[in-house]
Amino acid sequence: MARKGKPVVSKAARPEDAASGDLVFMLERLNFTDVEAKAYVALSSNSPATAYQIAQMTGLPRPNVYNAVGGLVAKGALQQISDSPVRYIPRDPGEFFTNISRSTFELCEDVVTELRDITVDDGTDYVATYIGQVAVDAKVSKMVSSAYARIYIKSSSRLLLPYCDVLLEAAARGVVIYIVAADPGISELPGHDNIVIIPHEGTGVATGTAVHHLLTVSADSDGMLIAAFNGEPTASYTRNDAIVYTIHTMILHEIYLAEIYKALGPDLEQRFGANLAGLRRIYRPENLENRVLERSRRQWKTKPS
């Protein structure tokens, strides 16, 4: 019984045992079995030794230790130094593990090469999500700055103002930019011969709440992004051909509608009401945009501070 006031330190709590446990864990990550790892650590601190002695040191069953020692010899981790009795010592750790490192690196390179030969992935099957103002701004700016021919945008003027500089840079290098924009702020959008401002539905009036909170960008028919600015900004980006085509076509139809409204506005309003209210009552579901806007707002409100 330990004397009163004297701490009792169990064998398992000794620092050297903790170090041995860490070594076993690391060796297992290097494809050693549990028994191989424990036998190797024991022999590294007490060698030379027989398999029987290793079993005594580790407390492991002798048959398991004999199998483990054979596996370690086959790996090149141990070498036999005597026949009677058969005793073992670890090979030089620096040389042994350097060889493992080299062979693993070469194997990984071969795997990468083979995978590149058989993998066909052009990045068009996925939707990437961007959360936060910085991430969304960076993605929008990258889409605009890497465009080479045409950009189509639908949004409120307010949401576009932060991107004026990058839009002007794209226009200056010859990219044609079509912007379907809603008031207020159309007059504040960047002016350039390659930037075409199209008032939303021909009048620039936002008939729903979504246009004030959503930014849609299609660049070179190669990728599209929809960002929601209702709370913390979030955006979805994809290069999926079907989705890009659908969004691109949607914005083109916005442009067609604006041109039709510009030419036939009074007749259209006489037939369908101001801002095509008659058509909206028939075809537009109530609260159509609520789902996407509510999701963005909810994500912002529940974000940890």
Question: What can be said about this structure in brief?
Answer:
With 305 residues, this protein is of the alpha+beta class.
The amount of helix comes to: 40-55%
Q: Distance N terminus to C terminus? A: 53 Å
- The side-by-side strand order for the widest beta sheet comes to 3-9-8-7-4-5-6
Shape: rod-shaped
If helices are DSSP runs of H or I spanning 4 or more residues, what is the number of helices? 11
Weakly predicted, low-confidence segments: 1-15
- Structural class call reads alpha+beta
- Spell out the helices and strands N to C: HHHHEEHEHEHHEEEEEHHH
Topology, number of strands: 9
Mean pLDDT: 83
Largest sheet: 7 strands, mixed
Task: Describe the model.
- The strands form two sheets. This protein has a seven-stranded mixed β-sheet with strand order 3-9-8-7-4-5-6, with helices on both faces. Strands 1-2 form a two-stranded antiparallel sheet.
- It has helices spanning 15-29, 34-45, 51-58, 62-75, 93-118, 133-146, 157-160, 164-172, 241-272, 277-283, 290-301; strands at residues 78-83, 86-90, 127-131, 150-156, 176-182, 195-199, 214-219, 223-228, 234-238.
- Strand 1 and strand 2 (86-90) form a beta hairpin.
- The model is unreliable at 1-15 (pLDDT under 50).
- The protein has 305 residues and is an alpha+beta fold.
- It starts with 14 loop residues before the first helix and ends with a helix.
- Helix content is 50%, strand content 17%.
- 24% of the residues are buried.
